[in-house]
Design brief:
This protein is an alpha+beta fold. It has 14 helices and 21 strands. Strands 15-16-17-19-18 form a 5-stranded mixed beta sheet. A hairpin with a 5-residue loop joins strand 18 and strand 19. The radius of gyration is 24 Å and the shape is globular.
Length: 451
C-alpha cells in the first residue's frame, strides 16, 4: 500500500499466492464511491459486482495481483456521522477496512501481510503485529472486519514500556496544552490500573491514538477501544486539558479495561459497558488514582443517572437497542450495578476463593482478543458457574436482565456500609460487609493478604 505525498491517495496492490477470492468486500459500504479500479495490474482486473455490493476479480491466476486506488479526500467526506477517514492537521485517521478490500471469506489458514510505502518523514501507527524481519505487518481475519482506526502521518511514535508491554502512543497533529510527557504518564497510569486486574496488561501490545479536539473539560472527551487486528484505543483529548488533569481521569481506564474483557456480541452492552464501567471505578481506587470515597461516590452518582434514564423495556432489550434508544446511562450503569452485586455475592459466599476479578480472568482466558470469536455474555456467566461449581452468576444476571427497573441496591448498600447523606456517600466501617467493600477498592496485594 503506497501513499501519495500529502496522503491524498492510497494505491493498493494485492497479490495472491494460492488462494484466489471470488469476491472482495469493503467494511464500509459508502467507501466504494472513493475506489478507482482503472489502475492496470498485468492480466487481472477488478470490476464492481452487478449489485454494486462487492468487487469481483477477473483473469486472476495464482501469483497474480489486483490493483486499485482510493481517493482519501473523498473518503473523509463520506458518511455524515461516522466517516471512515478524517484528517487531524497533516495526519490521517482511517478505518483500514475502508481502503483495503478483503476476501468475503477469510479462513484462519490464510496468511496476509502488508507493506507500506509512505512519503519521506511519514509513519504508520497500527495495532498489527509485524513479521519477524519487521518489514511487514500481519493481518488477522478481524483486522479489516471489526471497528478499527489506524493513523498515518508525521507524528512521533516512541514505544512506552508500561504494565509489562510496549505501548505505542501517537499524538496527532492538533493544538493541545498537555505535554508529551504528561500524555505518556496518563496512558501509563491507565494501563497500570488495568494491569492490576490481570497481573499485566491484557494484550501483548497496545496502540494509543491520542487526538486533540477543541475543548477544556472534561480532560478526555471520548474514547473508543478496538480489538480488530490487535489492541488499540482512540482517545479524544481536550486541547485545553493540563497534564495534571490527565492521570486518573476515567475515559482512559474505561477504554483500556475493555481490552481486558472478553469479546462479546454488541447486544450484550450491559455486560461489555457495565463491567468496564464498574472496573473503571474500582481499578482507579486500587491504583491510588482516586480514594475509595471518591469512587463509591462516582458509582452512586452513576447509579442515579442510570435510574433516571430508560426503564420502559427490560435491560436485555435496552442493551440490544442501546444505540437506537440512546439509553447509554441506563445500560452502562445497570450493567455496573450487576457487576457490583455479583462481586459482593461472590466475595460473601466464597471468601478468599472467588470474586469478580477471578471471573474476569477466566473470561479473558476464554474470549480475550479475537482468537475465539465473540461470546454471549449469558454463556460466559454459565461458564463461570461451572468453574465455581454452583449457579451464582447466571441466575443473578438473568434476574436483572429480564426486569425493566434499575437493580435494587438498598440491602447491598446497607451491608457494604454505603450510607447516603444529602447525596453524599459516607463509608461506614461498622457495616456487616465493610471488609468486602474495602477489599473491592484495595490494591491487589492487600486483597490477597485479606483472603
Ligand atoms: Zn465502553
Amino acid at each position: 500500500m503506497r501513499f501519495d505525498e500529502g496522503l491524498e491517495r492510497a494505491h493498493v496492490r494485492l497479490c495472491f499466492r494460492r488462494f484466489l477470492p471470488k469476491r472482495l468486500v469493503t467494511s464500509h459500504p459508502a467507501a466504494r464511491e472513493a475506489f478507482d479500479l482503472s489502475a492496470p495490474a498485468g492480466d487481472a482486473s477488478l470490476v464492481r459486482s452487478r449489485d454494486g455490493q462487492s468487487f469481483v476479480p477477473q483473469g486472476l491466476k495464482p501469483g497474480g495481483c489486483l490493483s486499485w486506488s482510493v481517493d482519501l479526500d473523498r473518503l473523509t467526506r463520506l458518511g455524515r456521522r461516522r466517516s471512515p477517514a478524517s484528517r487531524v492537521g497533516r495526519d490521517l485517521l482511517v478505518a483500514p477496512g475502508a481502503v483495503m478490500l478483503r476476501p468475503a471469506l477469510w479462513t484462519t489458514r490464510m496468511l496476509v501481510t502488508v507493506r507500506f510505502v509512505l512519503p519521506e518523514g511519514y509513519r504508520a501507527a497500527l495495532p498489527w503485529p509485524r513479521t519477524k524481519d519487521g518489514s511487514r505487518y500481519i493481518l488477522d481475519r478481524y483486522a479489516l472486519r471489526l471497528e478499527s482506526t489506524v493513523a498515518f502521518g508525521r507524528f512521533a511514535l516512541e514505544p512506552l514500556e508500561a504494565a509489562g508491554i510496549l505501548i505505542d502512543v501517537a499524538v496527532l497533529d492538533a493544538d493541545h496544552r498537555a505535554t508529551r510527557a504528561g500524555i505518556r504518564t496518563w496512558i501509563r497510569k491507565a494501563a497500570e490500573a488495568v494491569a492490576l486486574l490481570h497481573g499485566r496488561f491484557p494484550a501483548p501490545r497496545l496502540l494509543a491514538l491520542v487526538q486533540p479536539v477543541p475543548a477544556r473539560d472534561p480532560p478526555v472527551v471520548f474514547g473508543t477501544a478496538m480489538r480488530g487486528g490487535g489492541a488499540h484505543v482512540r482517545l479524544l483529548l481536550a486541547s485545553g486539558a493540563k497534564d495534571e488533569a490527565l492521570p486518573g481521569e476515567w475515559v482512559g481506564v474505561h477504554e483500556l479495561a475493555h481490552l481486558g474483557m472478553p469479546w462479546t456480541l454488541d447486544t450484550d452492552a450491559w455486560f461489555q459497558e457495565g463491567f468496564a464501567t464498574y472496573y473503571q471505578e474500582v481499578l482507579r481506587a486500587r491504583a491510588g488514582l482516586k480514594t475509595p470515597q471518591q469512587v463509591w461516590q462516582n458509582i452512586h452518582d452513576g447509579f442515579g443517572r442510570g435510574r433516571r434514564s430508560g426503564g420502559k423495556r427490560t435491560l436485555a432489550a435496552e442493551s440490544a437497542a442501546m444505540h437506537e434508544h440512546h439509553t447509554y446511562h441506563r445500560v452502562y450503569w445497570a450493567g455496573a450495578a450487576i457487576a457490583l452485586l455479583l462481586d459482593v455475592e461472590l466475595r460473601r459466599r466464597f471468601p478468599g476463593r472467588w470474586c469478580l476479578d477471578d471471573a474476569m480472568g477466566l473470561w479473558h482466558e476464554m474470549h480475550g482478543g479475537t482468537r475465539a470469536g465473540a461470546a454471549r455474555a449469558t454463556a460466559l456467566m454459565r461458564a463461570a458457574d461451572r468453574r465455581i461449581g454452583q449457579p451464582v452468576c447466571a441466575p443473578l444476571t438473568q434476574a436483572h436482565l429480564s426486569r425493566a427497573d434499575f437493580p435494587e441496591l438498598t440491602q447491598t448498600y446497607a451491608a457494604l456500609g454505603l450510607r447516603v447523606e444529602d447525596g453524599r456517600v459516607v463509608l461506614d466501617d461498622e457495616a456487616p460487609l465493610a471488609n468486602v467493600r474495602r477489599a473491592i477498592t484495595s490494591p491487589a496485594a492487600d486483597r490477597r493478604s485479606a483472603r
